[in-house]
Amino acid sequence: MESRRTTLKKMAGAFALGASGLSLETMRAEAQSPKKGGTLTYAMSAETPHYDGHGSDTFATIQFSAPFYSTLLKFDLDKYPNVTGDLAQSYTVSPDKLSYTFKLHPNVKFHDGAPCTSADVKATYDRLRNPPQGVVSTRKATFADIASIETPDPLTVVFKLKGVNAAILQHFGSPWNFIYSAKDLEKDPNWPKTHINGTGAFTFVEHVKGSHVAGKRNESYFKKGLPYLDGFKGVFFLQAATMLNALQGGQVQAEFRSISEPEKQRLIQTMGDKIRIQESSWTLNLLVCFNVEKKPFDDARVRRALVMAIDRWGGSKGLGQISTLRSVGGVLRPGYPLATPEAELVKLPGFSKDIAKSRAEAKKILADAGLKDLKFTLHNRSIAQPYTPAGVFLVDQWRQIGVTVENKQQETAPYLAGLNSGNYDVAIDFSNLFMDDPSLALSKYLSIDRSPDNRSRSKDPELDKLYDAQMRELDPKKRQALIQAFEKRLFEQAYQQPLLWWYRMVPTHKTVMGWRMSPSHNLGQDLSDVWLNT
Amino acid sequence: MLRYTINRVLLTIPTLLGVAVLVFFMLRIVPGDIVEVKLRGDGGAVTQETIEMERHRLGLDKPLMIQFKDWMVGVVTFNYGISMWTERPVMEEIAIRLELSLEVAILATLIAILFAIPLGTTAALYRDTWIDYLMRIVTIGGISIPAFWFGMLIMLSLLAAFNWLPPITFTPIYEDPVANLTQLIWPAAAVGYRYCAVTARMIRSSLLEVLNEDYIRTARAKGVQEKLVISRHALRNALLPAITVIALEFTFLIGGLVVTEQVFNLNGIGQLFVQSVTRNDFTLIQGMVMLIAAFYVFVNLAVDLLYAVFDPRIRYT
User: Is A133–B49 a contact, with Cβ atoms under 8 angstroms apart?
Assistant: First the structure.
């Protein structure tokens, strides 16, 4: 009998392959022998405020820093969601699953020439799980299960866990967990925010603020033969239209995040067979989020009425044609093996296909709550795709039940600061997952004292209990039932609710080879396997 | 004249110090906290303790007057501190972008002057003929078409006609003049068109006014060649208001090309200004305001001095 993990991996693997939409043409191209040389120039849609992956949640940081760093493990994108060694040459797991031993590659050097040893891995993970004063680690809770880290020799590192954690290997493969030099951290725990010294495939050349980042091949990279490229240049673009022009004009050869459907159509029309578009469903969704500390959103009836007014099914058709939003789904990526099937989903508040009935009920609920002329501001992000169409869509949906909403879009930093400090009424939030693990996906909805990422600021012990139960449940069917119970409770309380899930379309010139599509834009950004077929 | 010049130069000092005082106190009453935006704006959940530590590190917990003293000492010694957001020296952040913005402004000014003087003069001399009407259409187009939209048209036309676009990263002119000009000539043309239109219309109306003056009639009656009447007597005086327009436009171009910079993906001062404001980056905003104010003050000073050169009737005593 197959273990739960094996079954899940097979299901997810088959799903990932289908979802990633790899064409036969792409596969044939990948079969060619990689060529060395050339500089890849690609578009970056945002500029990172700092270089430290440990304290960041934004794609801007990953895309900027990933080529310069290694992680302990990394996702094997051909076999997603499996992980494989990066800095770790091999690893073993004890039978009780409480001890993980990693053997590191020998002769790994940081870009400054210093050797990379188990002490550096320990210093990195100590910083992640227990950041010193003044250091921000957004992965502190993820590694709370680590009891101790031992380094019996320079090439061995042993992680002892407090309890079984089914997803810990995937977390060791998280793209955010760059391995830093212990010496650098000792010098200044915040040193990686403003300096780069990794063991990755590329060494840092320059960061011209507001313009670009450049790297060149790390000649002493520990993976022999890699990377293929002589170097890369990531150019920051402020406007999607400018980026599209640059792709069309050949100034950049790729954009590794995503474009929207109309942008895809434009590139295909103008570039024909010179452009390759790889597509996949995306582990990313937009959420409608209510600040439960603000009136009248402390009332579950009001929140429920507002989510019931949203026609997700109609919206997915319309917004799918003009934005990166596409699929209707619950808290797990639609189509993921443990996600709630559509037949069950439509029974939940906010997912009914009979929108007229749903809106009539929403109006009645608001009237019963004494809110006939409800007005509020929607806290939104000033990024066109997909925040602007999503905001406009929501304003229109709520207008149809007599609610007046102002869509206020702000720059990323003040937008996130507003979300994280609770300085808003209703917001468009997002759930950016680097993998599909349910415990990772559901953690956003835990009570705020357990999950600082819960921007609705809700506290719900019932949800917390269901979360813990699904995390310990080994039977996939029972686990799915628990996840559905979690989802039902969450949507009935309507603290926050997925609006729509994103759809990923990555354009690359046909000359760009070796880059692998995945359901998460946070993966595959280290560029170590990329080569140019020129 | 010398005394006037010295007085005008000395007057720039209290003006700039006044700007420094104003910008410091005005920024302190603007709502928003750089530390919150910086730490919480990165998606991170940070403790209040971490926020206080960062505030202390940046010196924001010091009494206001101590912060003011630090700022004023910095202004006098040309040390504008570090950007609270990027942690790099303010002067360095500005210097990266200033070269590009300054070059676009200079190129656009050259384009404007090169076209505006002949256009405005010809239109005035051939008043109410088809030449004048054509010039009016061209200049009204320049004024009414936003520079960023004209920039987009330029980019799309280049793409459609030649499947080519200018370079996207900046190369200093002393490193590679061809690459530099290939990149910057297009945004300069986009903003230069509007700039040229405004200046040409100013020259036209000003020249028409001057051409009706008694001294022009006298010059003609004395039998001075028409070419000399126009160039030496009329145009020289008609250029005075145009100089003011050119100077104001030039200063505006240093920091005011936010959207055009986006269209051409230029790493200019305008973008930096907007970013520093949205991030509440006090030190950077202060540095930028001082820079723009200094440009305005010195360009105005230059205009005042140029008036004397172009109009000998003006005497500074």
Answer: yes
